[in-house]
Here is the input.
Amino acid sequence: MPLLPPNVSATNFSQAVSQFRAVVGQEWVFTSDDDVALYKDAYSPFWGEKEEILVSAAVAPSTAEEVSQVVRIANTFKIPIYPISTGKNLGYGGSAPNLSGSVVLDLKRLNRIIEVDDKRHFAIVEPGVAYFDLYRHIQEKGLRVQADVPDPGWGSLIGNALDHGVGYGFGGFRDHFYSHCGMEVVLPNGDIVRTGMGALPGAKTWAEYHYGAGPYVDGLFSQGNFGVVTKMGFHLLPAPEAYLTGTVIVPKRNDIIPLVEGGNRLEHAGVIGMPEYGSPLGGFGGPPDPELRSILAKPGGASVAELEQHAETTNRGFFSLTVQFYGGEKVVRAQWEYAKEVFAGIRGVKFNEGDFIKFPATPEQLEKAHKVAIGVPNMSIFTIGARSAFNPSPTDGHLWFSPIIPKSGEAILEAQDVFMKVFRDMNMPSLVSPFSVPATWMFRAFVFIMGLPVYRNNIEQNKKTRELVKHLIQVGAEHGWGEYRTPPAFQQQVTDAYSYNNHALRRLHETLKDAMDPNGIISAGRYGIWPKQMRGQTKV
Amino acid sequence: MSNRREFLQLTLAASALPALAARNEPIDPERLALNGPRVRVDDVIVESTSPMAIAFGNEATRFGLEVQGVTDDVTDLWYQHLSVRWNRGPAVVAGLTLSTTLFCLETLANDRGMRLWFRADHAALANGQAQHEVSGARRLVDRAAVFQRDWVCGFAGLLAALPPWQPEKSQSNFIDPFPDPVWAPGPMVSWIIAPRSAAQLPLV
Here is the structure.
């Protein structure tokens, strides 16, 4: 018996599918078991369990007009639909909806690059355009712009931005929703609306000026379920002439405080791109060496003095900050000299100059470079192994726990202590150490991100992981650290934590949802926003 | 343990193909013609850091197949080659790679109307034997049963004379009690990616 959407009869579903076929063509409606299986979350933390989200069908339109017709049909038959772009949101739900039985609205056939302007530095694209696609377009046309890219490069610009995805480049460009400008949206009633300057026929500034006139509604469509985005503009970085990195190394644990203060000052003033904090002793993604592991394994843990002593005797320093500069050669070299002055007051600080590239990069430079930092999409993230003390067996994927913490050294140290205690209390190998540092993808905050393993053949381990994540979410919320993004399995709990004034934000979302999507057909349950008729029920 | 030439001849006998020449000579794929059309394999991908995959790549080359190496990161293979090839239309690609490589390529292939039609996960067991967990189109899984004890040669031979298949699926689990010394531990997988519809299989 094929899976049906909830509260939809087989007859109505069959009629809806027939009408979908009439709109998009027979070959672009997928109902076979093999085809719908492709829309499972490849990194599902419920793989093989009854809670695993499954879809009933998928529909792949090729234009905004077809999307509008599909949405109207879904409304007629009250079919829950779940739009995806390229469906590559691995670690945050992939291509699977929040509600089992939904019909996936697969937008990858909307794959046109509408416009790229390298004098005013913007692009307008459809949801099926991946970072690889835009990069190829820019390279082939010789355009002097650079798109900010995430890891890996196969994702959709629109899909990534709408889930608040992030990259590695300069300033606000790497907050992909922040750097978007204007969108075209199919509303739940099938209406096609353009926001910002796009609402003014003939305006050429759709992808230049965000706001148009009147209330700014774009945010409703990010991590939301108020419409289907079919076009979006993005601000692009002018292609830099040169790129330079430098590393600042500090000897003591508490030096992270002035290190971050200096990094903030440089970044918020537009001097550096994404700051990359690390630890020569093994921070983000790096395991401690054997001698250090034995120090850490001592009963009661290691003291700060012991760790600092180890850092000194091994001449490695305790924390580091790699700074990145983009611009003319004279400018980046002067900026690096200025950056050294900013950090010079930290006792024992050391500086190492890193990569210098005068574009175009040579193949050797490109091979060595952190490609995403210079706008080159790639797949190398998949080469990073997932073996760790936490789980020595290879994994089938991961999910992310991504709490936002303040952009300060004090917050880093506090987060280390709090989360190390969580793992100790749960008697689990810790993913956090005294050298753990946050990711800096956000322009104006830190994310103290952790990757948890998922398996396709280990239900027990997946259950433990889910329990751990639930506990981490709770502990994070108790300290004012909410997640910026999370897989569907945890979206309800995460958004429950945003509870100011008796969940006033949730109530606002629900008011808007009821007005805009009374049948609740779009992305039911996304980030805790359920249709009225489903609130308070147990749902899969 | 029988030698590899004998195993390969058994494979060819089972598929009604003519006997091979000496193993160090290139093999004309036309001599491997089935009684009927064969599926054209456009590319064979091998993990360059795996002795097993390299040996397979050498065999595939001897069979006249186009072999591309990949070292874990599929970026260049995807961006420079496969994305261009697949944008022109469906094509059959096979390989012996790390499972992460297959995950990436399968996901990208699905976007372009192609599917994974054959998969064999290889593992070195603690007792020194080798295990192949095979799944996919029934006709291909049945063929794997014939060459299970000489995977490197047998899989290359299968690709060189790949029969068209129907959607019916099956799976099986084979044990090779005396695996070839080129085996190395690690999550290696053999696979075939081809158009979603059997009617779109490119035949020669």
About this structure: Residues 459-478 of chain A form the longest helix (20 residues). Residues 39 and 59 of chain A are 11 Å apart (CA to CA). Chain A has four domains: 10-106, 113-238, 242-478, 488-534.
